[in-house]
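A protein record pairs a chain with a discrete description of its three-dimensional fold. The following entry can be read in just this way:
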Amino acid sequence: MTTQTASRPASSATGPVIADWRDFYALTKPGVMKLVVFTGLAGMLAAPVQLHPVLAFTAILAIALGHGGAATLNQWYEADLDAKMKRTEDRPLPAGRMDRDTALHFGVGLSAFSVLLMGLATNWLAAATLAVTILFYVCVYTIWLKRRTPQNIVIGGAAGAFPPMIGWAAATGDITLMPILLFALIFLWTPPHFWALSLYVNADYARAGVPMMTVVAGPRSTRRQMLLYALPMIAVAIAPWPLGLAGPIYGVTATLLSAGFLLLTIAVVRNPSAKPARMVPEKRLFLFSIFYLFALFGALVIDAWVPVGQAMGVSG
């Protein structure tokens, strides 16, 4: 899901290439940002209180800027690892198109401004949750976990699970059971989603010395663990419907999508290959997992706004 800039030389005959807007944009990981912004927006729109459109836009902007700042600081700290992996070697820092101090200042500036903007535009609970998200991703995942434990993506995945909670808090000023379930959904979704990708680039992580689950435990064990996370994820995904927190539009969508996710995960578990060229089930699961989250949160918003759920006597 990482978006990279077009390859450009790090230096020329007249000296080093100066970073331009494309490099700053690449530091924010815009590919991942789309999902972060969408889930944050969905959490906001599904909340029972609606913000003024200007304030809602400002809150989403703050979430986007906070993600961009955290992503930048992640690349600032991991420039040495990125240089060792083919998937990331053309990022601005390892490619030599930007110096580390510039990236550090940009990341800190974006992060601080995003928290201040959120607090002034909405409320300080949402701002505090955004600050925790940034600190968790940078300090807990990037600095502490990434190079030390194969549980890095499991625990660190919490950072990507906060956006719908932030969006909900921005609209309502509190955090209830529904945003907690949305947090748990993304938290449990992250391991099977990310491990499906990491099975492809396992050699990259091994060469860089990153203890990903696929490197430490191997493909077979990782595939089994993907199923162990998918099962509770499915339960959490469907839970808002029987709990009366969402209506039938969301409930039916969640059930059908989750059935598809389960079938694809089982296909991954049954795949014995350790060669990327033969990892068709893994590729399908990775692509479907992205669609799964977008469709699920889209259904949540539709369910909250379309009168059919209310007409059937179900609270949206």
In short: Residues 1-6, 11-15, 309-316 have pLDDT under 50 and may be disordered. The domain at 20-174 is CATH 1.10.357.140 (Tetracycline Repressor; domain 2). DSSP finds 16 helices and two strands in the chain.
